[in-house]
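Pair request: fold both.
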Amino acid sequence: MEGLQIRKDGIWVPIKPLSNAFVINIGDMLEILTNGIYRSIEHRAMVNSEKERIFIAAFHRPTMDGILGPATSLVTSQRPALFRKVGVADYLNGFFSRELRGKSYLDVFRIQDEIGK
């Protein structure tokens, strides 16, 4: 059943479902942890008034007193850290208290290069 959409180039694009398949959306925390190797995708679920579909959201997070940042094994001179480190509690407090302004919360932790890319 259709219902999942992702944002691509500022446009919401419907995703055609595959029969008997699971869709796993990688969250922002995993993008930070993998130093951008796995990308978080902005997505939304749409209601279909004609057909039922099952949507289950499951969330996993590190311990609240932990530190969130790129895994040291994934930071090299060829691939420097893309995100700064932050306490998990601070990250979650900021995430749940932010206002939606069309900018990803992930961008708050992105490290900018010297010319601001």
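--- second member of the pair ---
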Amino acid sequence: MLDLGISKLALIGVVALIVIGPEKLPRVARTVGTLLGKAQRYVNDVKAEVNRSMELDELRKMKDSFEDAAREAEQSVRDNARDVQQQLEGVGAEAAASDGAWNTPLETPVSYPEYKNPRKNWRLKRGATPQWYKSRSGVRTRAQSGAARVARFRPHRID
């Protein structure tokens, strides 16, 4: 970094005053100040972006370690389940050899049909409603456009 002390800044100011002149010096100083501010903001943005990318890399590493741990846990659970299943099959084979009456495999659970919302089939329900009930309750049985409905219920003019 530049080592600027008070004496060097004063020397730069005097040279700028002589070269630029007292009329243009405030405008040039303002311009230099804004450019330095923009440069500082740019450097801060770059630093923030670098920090974000470093944090993102750390998060990716943590995610990978968690995924590896989850895979290991899943594998150990599968191994344990396989061992238990083999032990149960061994016990079942021993019981079948000794007793002879119990030789059926373990039953699979009964799967129930998926729930369907009864409102999904509203057309069927509408069709199953008797016509006399529809007319009494005011259900429209024939579809009409808006213009046809207006024309139907418009009062007739008497000339």
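Observation on the second member. The first helix runs from residue 6 to 20.
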